[in-house]
Amino acid sequence: MPSYIVTCNPDATPEQVAAAKKHAQDQGGKITHEYNLIKGFAVSFPQDSITTLESHEHVKAVELDGEMKTQ
Questions:
Q1: Measuring CA to CA, which residue among 23, 5, 22 is closest to residue 60?
Q2: What is the pLDDT of residue 15?
Q3: Which of 16, 21, 23, 30 has the least C-beta neighbours within 10 A?
Q4: Comparing C-alpha atoms, which of 5, 31, 1 is closest to residue 59?
Q5: Entry pTM
Q6: What secondary structure letter does DSSP report for 37?
Q7: Structural element, H or E, at residue 30
Q8: Between vectors from CA 12 to CA 39 and to CA 43, what angle results, nearest 5°?
Q9: Residue among 38, 39, 43, 68 nearest 53 (CA)
């Protein structure tokens, strides 16, 4: 399963972030990391189901996880 970074809305409460995580898990996703600096988490998710997560009311963005480099 591909891994995705899920960013919740900046004004999301902890309960709303938890609801987004539960939604991801209910759709077959596996939470692999929880972030503290942003309201978000990493999830391994079936590629054909990712649109259900993108449309969740507390989710701002869903991006494919990848290697990040700096100069």
A1: 5
A2: 96
A3: 30
A4: 5
A5: 0.83
A6: S
A7: strand 30-34
A8: 40
A9: 43
pLDDT of 48: 67
Residue type, 44: S
Angle at 54 between CA 53 and CA 60, to 5 degrees: 120
Q: What is the mean pLDDT of each run of 10 residues along the chain (71 residues)?
A: 91 95 91 93 79 85 81 73
pLDDT value of position 54: 82
**Which amino acid does the sequence have at 14?**
P
- Comparing CA positions, the residue from 65, 58, 66 lying closest to residue 31 is 65
**Consecutive H or E run containing 54:** helix 50-54
Strand partners, 64: 4
pLDDT value at residue 13: 95
